[in-house]
Amino acid sequence: MGLPTQTRYLIIGAGIHGLSTAYHLAVELKASGKGDGRDILVIDKSGVASGASGIACGVVRNNYFQPAMRELMAHSVDVWEADAQAYHYHAVGYMQISPESMHEDVASIAQQQKDIGYESDFIEGEADCMTYMKGLFDDWQARDITSVLHEKRGGYANNARAMHALAKKATDAGVTILGGVTVRAFEKDASGAVTAVVTDQGNIQADHIVIGAGPWAKQFWDMLELESTTQIKGPDGTIHTDVPMWIYWSLQEGTLGVEPDMLKTNAGAMPPVIHVDSNATLYSDVDGSVITDKMWGIYYKPDFNFGGIQGGAAPFPIQTDPNQVAVDPYGPASPEFIVGDDFAHMWVSALAHCQKRFEGHVPKFKQEPSGGIGAFTPDSFPVFDTFCQNVYFLADSNHGYKMIGVGKLVAEELVHARPSALLEPFRFSRYAAGQLHPTSSSPFPWSSRDKPVTHILPVSSFNVE
User: What is the model's pTM?
Assistant: First the structure.
């Protein structure tokens, strides 16, 4: 079909946020008698699941130190569970396995999960943790672990299949999804509201615009002529000015080419998603040399889509000026931002550190392009807010895939013009107000106390493993 010239709701991006918003918006419009899916148009420069959502590891978890993130993730797990079969969602649970330096933080997460009724088991003490883990995997051997938080909900979903399932739900509800449409610019009226989206195939007038562009968030931010820097009130009350709004991080994920069944539990069941943070010195499984004596973290799970054990490690900041970073070609097609031998060596050695069954498997790492980049906000947490009066911007700061419930909340806001309590902590205004999310002892950028609260410090100060 030809490109429509007008629509009530124009959604840019056919990934997790765009498709979830489109589907839930169609449902909400019809239920409220205010319209239906025919009022919604989704465009993408490539197609469904062609960006980050199509290559995501697919992990779904509630394991966040930040109360607002934890509540939002609990809501998203509800949405995943609402139609697990259609979403190709595997509710196997999730495990956060941690050293003593993270014990207090993880205990806080466990208590707050209990407070919101999110089922999990919390095991403390090195001996009890080892006993618990060996009860699941008889070859467990990770050292210096003093806490295990075992979420009974959560798990993972097949990335691309889940996106195509969302797309089908949306189109079945009357939504139009068009690929191969590239946005070039936005037209605004005298008040600053966007009146039309300029594409390579013509202009589209829209009453409401939703942007769910993932790694391309900065490009749309720039097209809307929003400020490239922001002001942030730090925890001590200091006002930091001219803080860059965006920084890119290189994502570190890959697949070990073994049978996914290799990771089954002692009982022969599919395992939970495993996330291990450790202070133990990590030695090479190839030659015994020291890979790192600093904190490191990995996650892994069986994956029948990729055909092996898939997972990753903490990302690292890209030191190139964000204005010069080439997001395209994206992911495995990138000649620059894909994982290399160093990641494979580290990640598989870390697997072997945790479970004996992985010893000697470094050569089995799949030598195929993997990884990608993410556009991170100043505090590495999402920004969900309205700009230019009628543009709802979903900047997920690489938390995207698991947050399927955000689209449902955005749809409810758009239809009922009523702010969502779960989305309020992620408004852009939090920076100037100093209402920042707390940080923890994790080595990952969205939680680590060892990263700056803002981007005013050089990237070398980030905790990178």
Answer: 0.93
